[in-house]
Amino acid sequence: MHDEGTSPLERLTHHASRMKLALTVTGIILAAELVGGYVSNSMALLSDAGHVATDFIAILLVWFTVRMARRPATPEMTYGYHRWSILAAVINALSLGGISIAIFYGAITRWFNPEPVEGGLMLGVAIIGLVANLMVVRYLHSEAEESLAVRSAFWHAMGDALSSVGVILAGITLMLTGWLWVDPAMSFIIGLVVLVGAWRLLREGLSVLLEAPPKHLSSQLIERDMATMEGVTGVHDLHMWSIATGFNLLSCHLTLNDLPLSEGTRIMGNIREMLHAKYGIAHATLQLECPSCEVTCCPLCPLPQEAGTDRH
To answer: Three-class SS string for 8-68?
Structure first.
C-alpha cells in the first residue's frame, strides 16, 4: 500500500509502470506456452496459453484505463475518467468467462478423443510459466487493493499461476502413468478456476456501475458519527456510492440548530474532514436544514419563510 501522502496522480503513474512490467512478462509467457503447447500437443498447456492471451489483453486494457484516469476532469466529465477502470474490470471479467467456455469445450472434445501428449516438454514450459506468472502476481499485489482494474489484472495473473500449477501436476502424472485423460481433466479444472474469478470481478464491477454503497462502509455507522458531531441534531437522506475503487462519494441532509451561516459552514468542514480521515470518503455533498422555521427563516435557508407554510 502507498503512504497516505501519495497523490492520486502519483499512484496512477505507479500503477502504469507496474502494468508495463506485467505486460512484458505476460507477453513472454504467452509466446512460450503457445509454442510449447503446439509442439507437445498438450490441451492443458494450450488452455493455459488461451488464458494467458486474455491476461495480456486484460493488462493492456488496464494500462490504457490507468492512463485515461490520469487525465484531468473537464466540464463534460466532471468526475474525470476514473470510471474507465471499472469498465476495464467488467470487460476483463467477461473475457475470462468467454475463455473458460472455450477451455470447457476443448477439454470435453479431448476427453472423448484423447491424443498423445509430450509430458516432459509440457512440464518444462509450465514451470517457466509458473515462475513468470508469480513475478507478475508480485508486481501487481501491492496495487490490487487500490484499483478494481488492477485487481482484475492481478486475478488474471493469479489464475495463470494456479493454471501453471495444474499443468505441472498433469505433466508429472502423464510422465509417471501415461494417463491421457489427465490432460483434459486438468483443463476442465483450469476452466472452473477462471470462471470463478470472472464471476467475482463481474459482480464487483457491476456493483460500482449500479452505484451500490461500497461494501466496506456502513451507512449506519457513518450516520451515527455525523449525528454526534458538534451542532448536528439529525441526519437523513444519506446516500453512498463509488466512482472507482477508493473514490467514494456521499450525500446527505443535516439538521442543525438555528445558527449563523458561518457556523454551518464550519460544521460542514469538520464533518468532511471526519469522513475523509475515518472512512476515506473523497467527496461529500452536505445539505443543511433547520429543524423548524418561523415567519423569517434561519440563515441556512435560501429564501424567507412565508407565514403559515412549512418549507421543511
So the answer is: HHHHHHHHHHHHHHHHHHHHHHHHHHHHHHHHHCCHHHHHHHHHHHHHHHHHHHHHHHHHH
Q: What percent of the chain has pLDDT over 70?
A: 80
Q: Which fold has domain 8-209?
A: Alpha-lytic protease prodomain-like (1.20.1510)
The x, y and z cell numbers of residue 69, run together, are 484516469
Q: How high is the mean pLDDT of the chain?
A: 76
Name the one residue in this structure whose C-alpha cell is 495444474: 166
Quick check: 37 and 30 in contact, CB under 8 A? no
Which one is the CATH code of 211-312: 3.40.50.360, 3.60.15.10, 1.10.1660.10, 3.30.70.1350?
Answer: 3.30.70.1350
- The reported pLDDT for the residue numbered 44 is 65
- Model pTM greater than 0.90? no
Residue 225: C-alpha distances to residues 51, 189, 253 (Å): 46, 47, 14
